[in-house]
Amino acid sequence: MRYNPEQAEAARTRVLDAAGRAFREHGFGGVGVDGLARAAGLTSGAFYAHFRSKAAAFRAAVAAGVERLRLGIEGFKRRDGGAWFDAFAAYYLGAAHRGDVAGGCAVPSLSAEVARAGPSVRAEYEAELQRVAEEVAAGLGAGLPREAAWPLLAELAGGVLLARAVADPALAQEIAEATLTSLRKQARAVSQGAA
What's the structural domain count of the chain? Predict the structure, then answer.
């Protein structure tokens, strides 16, 4: 059965979304092509119609995952205006996001996997992550360089990673709240420095 271009793109998007969820939940080594295909509701043969390998799917899922972070930041900026960073950080460190490894941000879930990946995956991740940093810096103050965003992004991802890794929910909440308090202070300092 042949698909028109719109149907083919929708099918590829569905496969990519399912692969991203599977990679974030299980890691690159924790899921094979059969598992990726099953997650998308496909056969393995149908999976190969969209991606020539598991590595190609991983590369695409990493890029899409980091792009999704940037688009999410854009959404918070549109919705919350000058208070966007507080709202975004509260969401990002919140219990719902922390508890949704498969559906959450790719940065805390996949960065260690990317560090072990080949050069093409790392280059794709790097390019997308730079766009995220530029989006954050632009939202904190006119003319801020992207370097101003790195400590904030690192603390966001690290806070989520640590909170997810502990077994005690009270400790996870303590980590998240302490990280949020620190981030709010940093973001205010960065914004005031740009004024």
Answer: 1
